[in-house]
Design goal:
It contains 21 helices and 16 strands. By secondary structure, it is of the alpha/beta class. It has four domains: 159 residues, Response regulator (Rossmann fold); 150 residues, 3-Layer(aba) Sandwich (Rossmann fold); 90 residues, Helicase, Ruva Protein, domain 3; 43 residues. The strands form five sheets. The protein has a five-stranded parallel sheet with strand order 4-3-5-6-7, with helices on both faces. Strands 9-10-13-8-14 form a five-stranded parallel sheet. α1 links the parallel β3 and β4. α14 packs parallel to α16 and α19 packs across α20. It is flat, with a radius of gyration of 29 Å. Adenosine-5'-triphosphate binds next to α7 and α15. Adenosine-5'-triphosphate (ATP) binds next to α7 and α15.
């Protein structure tokens, strides 16, 4: 059984660009410890490991401390960083420390810094409800052993404690990486898949490994590559991107490796290739699946040896470049077809990051749309347009084949073209190129474009919008609207005659009266 706790997690907060249309939106605040206790982590004969939990949220402390104690650890908890540091002076370090990031006084990252300065070997798990790249990368850069997104599954937290303690018993203290350049975090997402991705980026940014980013077009592969660079020790060096599919095959070699003057017709001057331009930094090779086979062979050699000749050159050039490759194609299928070298795939694919399509993380749509509308408004020096609930429902129902890029383009179009400050459903329909539905003018038209069978699709879209906006108890809301729609249609059909309306609906008259509630005229 999975044990979990839930508490006030920052859900995408409706900001100035969004209206919620949701009366009952509130943050959840409950926790539960019910469930099977995990196996005891230490045998009774061994001295149990000591774990400290630092968090200003009493309920988080309570559930985590209880779960860790149940697992056999000696656990102490502290409401702030200063208390933990005092205890460190008095009693020496624990074997493992969990700390929250945002706390009154010194935050968790400051505590992490102080701990790493005094007891570098102490493994620290950083916990936060804010799983963006700035937070995860900041934690790993500061020397965190692991990043735990709140709310977390308690069994997972206990298992993480066991793993960390086991690893720290054998490992040397990790070298804290030098601070990377501060930068704004452009990747938006609050779904579980994106949080997992942000944690992976935060961790991978510190490691000099090749990364293969996969995902459909427009899912943000280049943004991921930029974030990996920005948060890495290479941040002060260049980030150079090359879209393999956009360059004619015959020019690609010289684009990558450069050429000497006179190397081929038209090569009047020496040209430094992208590898040289990226020296010390990161080279992003987009659409790697489109690279011609002969060039794949050359790339493989360069990646293996770290050196190459410019086209037409005799000087051996050595570079230190981290390569991040991306593709929307199935590289394994290309390998099977003989169109991609298996050994190159293995070299590029040391770590793979998969970006989910937007339709698999629709809950991120409101936040993304809000960000894009705000960016467009800033550019146009105009107030940001707002998305009404029907518009949001329509956005949530769309499948986004072009992913985030399609949403971004749509928002810019709306910001430029939609009349008025509030964007309605019809404008989204129009911008998406779908037939325009207008409740007022379409109602009653026999040829109304609204498909009679699509109300369940619209209901699903409404539910997604409400959930994305943080509304609770939406079943009751939906049922009330469902009943109202049926009752009103039936009463309209029977000219207001309740008995007949009830019969046509297959309801008892009393049930219909109850559902109509007080204040309805009797017929
Ligand atoms: N998570 C995100 N948060 C904010 N903006 C995003 C996000 N993902 C993508 N974008 C925006 O969407 C657009 C497309 O992103 P990007 O170019 O990184 O996608 P891609 O997967 O590399 O696309 P392609 O495969 O077509 O090259 C960019 O303008 C980018 O800023």
């Amino acid at each position: 059984m999975v044990r979990s706790y839930h508490f006030a997690e920052p859900s995408p907060q409706p900001g100035p660009g969004l209206s919620t249309g949701c009366e009952g939106a509130h943050r959840r605040a409950s926790h539960s410890l019910a469930g099977t206790p995990p196996r005891r982590a230490r045998r009774a004969t061994l001295k149990p490991a000591t774990i400290w939990v630092v968090d200003d949220d009493r309920s988080v402390r309570f559930v985590l401390v209880t779960a860790l104690r149940e697992a056999g650890y000696r656990v102490e908890d502290f409401g702030n960083a200063a208390e933990a540091l005092t205890a460190l002076d008095e009693r020496g370090p624990p074997d493992l420390l969990f700390t929250d990031v945002r706390m009154p006084g010194d935050g968790g990252l400051v505590l992490l810094d102080k701990l790493k300065a005094n007891v570098p070997q102490l493994p620290v798990v950083v916990m936060s409800a804010y799983t963006d790249i700035a937070s995860t990368a900041g934690a790993f850069r500061g020397g965190a052993h692991e990043f735990l997104s709140k709310p977390f599954d308690l069994d997972e937290a206990v298992a993480l404690a066991a793993r960390t303690l086991a690893a720290s018993a054998t490992a040397d203290a990790p070298e804290p990486a030098p601070p990377a350049a501060a930068a704004s975090d452009a990747l938006i997402g609050d779904t579980a898949a994106m949080r997992t991705l942000f944690r992976a980026i935060g961790r991978l940014a510190q490691a000099p490994l090749s990364v293969l980013v996969t995902g459909e077009t427009g899912t943000g592969k280049e943004l991921v590559a930029r974030a990996l660079h920005r948060e890495s020790p290479r941040a002060a060096q260049p980030f150079v991107a090359l879209n393999t599919a956009a360059i004619p095959a015959e020019l690609l070699e010289s684009e990558l490796f450069g050429h000497e003057a006179g190397a081929f017709t038209g090569a009047q001057r020496r040209h430094l290739g992208r590898f040289e331009q990226a020296n010390g930094g990161t080279l992003f090779l987009d659409e790697i699946g489109d690279m011609p086979l002969p060039l794949q062979t050359r790339l493989l050699r360069v990646l293996a040896e770290g050196e190459f000749f410019r086209v037409g050159g005799r000087e051996l050039i050595r570079v230190d470049v981290r390569v991040v490759a991306a593709t929307h194609q199935d590289l394994e299928a290309l390998v099977a077809d003989g169109r991609f070298r298996a050994d190159l795939l293995h070299r590029l694919d040391v770590v793979r990051l998969r970006l989910p399509p937007l339709r698999e993380r629709r809950e991120d749509v409101p936040q993304l749309a809000q960000r894009f509308l705000a960016a467009a408004a800033a550019k146009f020096q105009a107030p940001a347009k707002r998305l009404g609930t029907p518009a949001l429902e329509r956005l949530l129902a769309h499948d986004w084949p072009g992913n985030v890029r399609e949403l971004e383009n749509l928002c810019w179009r709306l910001a430029a073209l939609a009349p008025g400050d509030s964007i309605g459903r019809a404008e989204i329909d129009e911008a998406l190129g779908a037939p325009t539905h207008n409740r007022d003018t379409d109602a009653g038209r026999p040829d109304a474009p609204r498909d009679e069978g699509d109300w369940d699709i619209q209901l699903a879209a409404w539910a997604r919008a409400q959930l994305a906006l943080g509304c609770d108890a939406i079943h009751a809301q939906a049922r009330a609207r469902f009943d109202r729609a049926l009752l009103e249609a039936a009463l309209e059909h029977t000219g207001g005659r309740r008995a007949e309306a009830a019969a046509r609906l297959g309801l008892g008259r009393n049930t219909l009266t109850r559902k109509l509630g007080p204040g309805r005229h009797r017929s």
